[in-house]
Structure formats: C-alpha cells, structure tokens
Input
Amino acid sequence: MTFGFPMFFWGLVALVPLVAVYFIRTRPRRQPVNAFFLWQQVFQQRAASSLFQKLRNLLSLLLLALAFGAAVVALARPRFDDGSAPDLLIVIDRSASMQAVEDGKPRIERAKELAHSWITALGGSQRAAVADVAKTLEYRAHLTNHARLLKDAIDGMAASDQALDPHALDELALLSSAAGGNTGKTRILFLTDRHSAPMKLPEGVEVVAIGGQGGNAGIDAADLRWESPGRASLFVSLVSDFPEDRDVELELVSAADGALARLFTVHLPARGTASESIAVDAIEPGNWLLKLRGKDALDADNIAPLGLNAPQPIPVQVSAKNPYFFQQCITAFSRADALFEPLEGFARLSLAVGGAPDTECAIVFAPVGDSPFWKNVGDEIQPGPPEIVSKDHPLVARLDPALLGFDGARKLAAPAGAVVVLAHADGTPLLYTCSAGGKSAVVLNFDPSREEFYLSPWFPVLVHEAAVLLTGRENQFPSAVATGSRVEVPGTEEVKNAKVEIAGKSEPVAAAMPAPIERVGNYSFSRNSTDWHLGGAVFSAGESGAAPAGTPPPEVKLATGWPLAGWFLLGAIGVVLGEEFLYHRRKVG
Output
C-alpha cells in the first residue's frame, strides 16, 4: 500500500493531547456542607463503579483514537498500487449517435456516469484530464487531481448534432507516442459507441465501448431541387442497422405550417441502404422537413431539413441577325430548369454572333471586327478537328470536341490572360474564355450557321455550359448539408437575418461567411435582397448505421466506485457515532 500524501501522518501527534485529556483528573474543592451523610452515599456509589468507569473511559479513548487514526489515513490518500499509476486522459465521444437512447438512457449519459465513477475511484491521488470529441477534439479540464473540477467538466458535456470526424483524434498520436517513451505517463481512454465513419485510432488509445445495441434507421442523404417551374425532385438515401427488412414511411412537410406535400414508402433491407427519387408537384420555395416515421434509437437522423430556393434565372438577350435558334434555346432552358429569363435592355448575359455586346457576360460566336475579347481577326482557316489545350475544362466536360468541325473559324488572337480550351492545329484559339474591363466572355471561333450546327445537340450544350460558367452557377446552392459543414451564401453584400429554425423555434446564427452549420434545423439567410434557405442534417451513414464489424475492443480494467480513503473516512465517522451511541457523552477524568 502506498500513500498519496504521507505528510498527513504527522497529524497522529494530536493523539498525545487527546490521551492526556482522558487521564487528567480534576481536583475537588473543599466546601462546607450542612449534612455529610448525603455525600457519603455519593462517594459509596462512585467507589462501587470505579473499575467499570475506568474500563468505560479507556474503551471510549480507544474508539476515538481509532476514529482519529482512520481520518488521518484517509487524508493520506492510501492506494493499493505502488504509486506509479499513469495520468488519465478521458475522451468522451459526443457525436450525434451518442444521443441514441438504450434502455431509457442516452449513450452520452452512460459514458458520463462511467467517467464519473473512474474519477471518484481516483480519490484525488491520481491526476486526470477530460476532453470530448465530435468534429474536433476539445479539452474540458486539463490534468488535475481536483475531482470536483473534473466532474463539473464532464457534467458540462452534451451530445452534438455532428458526426464524429475520423481524423479528430489524430493529434493524440503525439501524446500516446510520448507516453510510450516515458513508461506510460498518460493513459488515454476513449468512451464511444463506435458509430462513425471508418477511423484509425492512434496507437495507445484504449476504446471503451458504450451501448451499441442497434435498432436504428436514419436519413444519410437528401436533396430537393427544381425539376421544372412548380415541380421539384426529392432524393433521399436511408441506412438501417435493424436485423430485419422493413418498409418505412417518409413524409415531406412544410416547415412553416406542417402542410403535407408527399408521403411515400421505401423498402429498407436488413443492415443495408436504400434510396429513392420522387417528383413533388405544386411545391413552393421555402423551408421543408423530410421526416422518417416510426420510433428507433436515434431521433436526430429521422429528420432532414431541406431548403428550396426560388429560381434565380439569368436575364439574357440575343444579339444576332438570325435570333430564332438562340430564342428556341432560351425557351427550352427556361422551361427545363429556369436557367434563363429573356430580358431585353437589362440583360446580364448576351448570346451574340459577330460583335461583342455591352453586357456583363457574353457568349460570342464567329467574332468579327475589333473587341477587347479578341484582336487581329483575319481570314478563315481550314476547318479541322481541334486540339485540346485545357483538358477537363468545364466547357468541354459534356461534349466530344472531336465532333466539332469549327467551320468558318478565322485567324485571330486571344487577349492576354485568356484561357484557351480548344485551338486549331496552327495555334489559332477556337474556344476560350477571357475578361476585360470588368466583363467576361466565352468566344467560339466558328460560324454556327454552317454544317447545321444550330440543329446539332452540341449547340444547346455549349450555350448551357458557357452560361453556367460565366454566371458562376457551376456550384448550385445546396438544399441541405451535413452538420459541421460551412456554406458560402451567394452574393456580395452583408448577410442579414441569419437564423435557424429548430422545432418551430427561431434562433439567430452567425452571419459571417462561410456560415457554420452546426445543428439540425432550417437555416435562412438574406443577401443581395434575396432569401436563401438551407437545411442542416446529420447525414452520416456511420452515425445512423451499424457499428463496424470485427473484433470488439478489449475490456478496459479500471477501478470504479469509492476510493480507499473514502472507506477509511466512512469508518471513522461510524466509530464516532458508535462511541456516542454507547456512552451518550464523552467522559473526561
């Protein structure tokens, strides 16, 4: 047995005055009395019980000395080990799956109770630190033997809506390697339900499994996008760790008034995944909630808030002698995905043939004359297959350049800074992007009226890809993202009215960009006079699905419950109470 604070044994010196107090006899004072026979009876009774009185006082002294000694030993913090036990770093998983309820109690509460028990068993004679982890590792209490401080840090933990980052514990590799080099100075204990994306724990981290009985199905991906005006496409992906197949019901409701938009059923295989895409008619822009009906272990992944933003068509005009095919193209894309909105005079984008129009963006076929977007226009060059200069450029991501003849291309030079995508064999640029004077353009160096290019499938493809690229629509604003993500709201002005709506209650959120999405809810932002809607959801197959298969982690052996000092202190209190119960009061002298 060793002691954490052996200096407290000096307190046993206090037994000397205690014993002295018991053996001090008070000298009676002489007082004249009227009758002596009454005092004779008292003296006779005291003489008769003198031996018993001495034994009783001695036993009382021994009991109090025993209680005092036990209290001193408790203060010295006795331990059964050799006193070289390592420090502890207790890391608690607070990812979304730790909200799962098993046998009436969330997993996070089970982890906190176990950590509490460990700290109680330390008895203040061993140091520990406390941290939690979800997206990142956060230290709640640094190394200390102050049990109350450690327990308060644990009590302050709560499960988040975010998934466990597979690399969140990587920084512990340095600590565990340092511990290995110093004969185990720190022992790292990770309390987790093991529901996460595949992760490789640093060497030396001991896993303590919490719960994990299963019985959950959740939404791990969802999307809501316009398919045509007034009609949207809903996509959902589900994951299950139930041991049997089941049919689950999902409903899409308005977050504003709870109005039901769609109710449908998905067949979910045992410990498997399933996905479904359906059309939703007569739907309005705004916040929506996709709910998985039924009861399971984890509620947080049964709901996927979604945002459906009003279409933002690109104002477009045509500048060509024969605008018919351009107008047909604009009409087609206006009906399909609301990409274009014909708007003469205030257009942002121009579809032109010949000269460059005075708009913010332009798609120009068959350039002629002088323009900031080209120079030195000369004679026609011999048509032929182009050479790809910029491989994997988004302008040619969905077409085969070898099928384009580029008939009518002319000798010209692109301005400085232009990005040439396709070029003639002699180096003449055939397809390129450029910017000048705050304006940008995609230049297509060929005549679209030749070789019936207007009727080919590549004409609308090129117009669509060029328009999306010039107006920055390559990355559409998402309908929903996983919690822990950051989102940039389109626009240049200050973001206003940034808020999140959770269970019908609205709360302000940070307006700084990119906006952090930390909780499950419907987020709304206002920027450049446009309202943007976005959903934040768990969206993690690791959190919602089954724990990884394989050999379970070895059992971690660590003392729990009351420390040895606590039992000594409890014994001291018991002896004092027993002495008081037997003698009613302490006899002195």
Q: What stands out?
A: The mean pLDDT is 85. Residues 349 and 361 are 5 Å apart (CA to CA).
